[in-house]
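Hi R.,

Here's the chain you asked about this morning:
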Amino acid sequence: MKITVLYSGNYGERVLNTILEKFAQNIVSIHEIPENLPEYIDDVSEYVPENLKESDLIISVGLFGDINLIVCDIAKKTNAKSIIIESHSPKQVTKGLKSEISNSLNEIKIVFPKPFCSLKPVGDTYIDEFAKYFGSPEIEIIGETIVKSVTVKRNAPCGSTKYVAENLTGYSLNEVEFESGNKLHNYPCLASMDVDNEMGDTILHLAGYKIKEAVKKSLKFSNMVLNVNSNCNGVECGFKCYNICPVVKMGEKAVEIIDKTAKINYLYCGLCMKCIRECPFNAIISLKYS
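And here is the predicted structure, written out as tokens:
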């Protein structure tokens, strides 16, 4: 697999350094795009890098605004088959830009993970090969009452999963879900704390939900779960819990509709509590476990 990487800013540099650990031999072209370009650019062609090489996959990291459109020219020049364009800020790639890029390259598989650590296999040869190693975090926690070791099976593209894993040893198993979020902040995660209107939450929070998901999947339990009781009448309210859930918007099954009733899957639930606040029937309650 031949990869071209376009990157900009500190976040882009961090991702580049992380993925080089695995894909150094696959990356045929690396191009730094200037920071602080205007949000709106009449003609992006002047920013298209020279010396482009044939590629299977283009990874675009840290670009803001219209400059993202250069992937259209680059994809055509490199004969790329697949593209990943990440977002760690609401200002990076608008819905309009996504549509413009997708329509221009309708024969190429394009994904727009928001955040990058929400990337999962999509049935595409090249994106899925990348997603084996980078994307939605996957870890294995070993220990009976305290964490003895943590193995990273899939790292976040920014490298945060590896950092979190290295700093969880010694905590009790009841603490690690909470502590994983703390460690993500300590890394520090560079995702934005501005609310993303499309997702209904900050992208930094979304990244936090993903590392906690990885912890819960490994432990197979959570210290707190949300439960839907018999008051649920989702047909009447249009399942507000499902429609407001930022984790659902990220592509995970945090809320499912089963037999006309909402069910909350604790493995994916980020405990943002938005569903509790929005439920008109007070049908969602939190249950704490020790």
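One quick note: Residues 203-219 form the longest helix (17 residues).

Cheers,
M.
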